Amino acid sequence: MEKAQGQTDEQQTVESWLNSPEIQELRQSFAAFQKKQWAEDQAWWDSLSYEERAQSFRQIMKLMHKAEVQDRGTYRWALYDVFGLDYGDGLDHYMSLHNLISFALEAQGSGC
Fold first, then answer.
1. Mean pLDDT over residues 56-61, rounded?
2. Domain membership flag for residue 57
3. What's the whole-number average pLDDT of the chain?
4. Measured between alpha carbons, how far is 64 from 61 in angstroms, rounded to an integer?
5. Second label for 110, Cα 20 to 30 Å away, from 7, 21, 54, 75?
6. Is residue 82 predicted with pLDDT exceeding 90?
7. Is the pLDDT confidence value at 62 over 90?
8. Which residue range forms the structural domain that includes residue 76?
């Protein structure tokens, strides 16, 4: 791979590694895993009765309110201590919500 102008040897090495066949395979494997997990989650959700969905929603909202509004904890606090989950479970979605909520609470506190 030819080094781009102004690129250091270290940047070249990192870029080569990020574009390596092994990393590409890892990305594809993770994408396949996510797709399977999302399909399983959707099938589970679709199998719930209305009351089970409502109960699930209420409980998740209570836990989110505790983690984000009452405790104002980190996303790790929410995931580990409030929800009692492991690091990877739903993290990508929760981090987006956590960051939005944190930003809104900070803006509200600063009078914006």
1. 96
2. yes
3. 86
4. 5
5. 75
6. yes
7. yes
8. 22-109
- Count CB-CB contacts under 10 A for residue 81: 14
Residue type present at position 41: D
Is residue 70 a part of any domain in this protein? yes
HEC-encoded secondary structure of the chain = CCCCCCCCHHHHHHHHHHCCHHHHHHHHHHHHHHHHHHHHHHHHHHHCCHHHHHHHHHHHHHHHHHHHHHCCCCHHHHHHHHCCCCCCCCHHHHHHHHHHHHHHHHHHHCCC
Number of domains, the chain: 1
Q: What pTM, to 2 d.p., does this model score? A: 0.66
Token digits for 8?
Answer: 């250091």
Query: d(Cα 87, Cα 45) in Å, to the nearest integer?
Result: 22
pLDDT of residue 58: 98
What pLDDT score does 15 carry?
Answer: 86
Q: What are 100's two structure tokens?
A: 């939005």
Cα separation of the two ends of the chain:
49
What would the mean pLDDT of 33-39 be, rounded to a whole number? 90
Report if residue 71 sits inside a domain: yes
- CA distances for 11 relative to 2, 14, 25, 29, 36, angstroms: 12, 5, 21, 25, 34
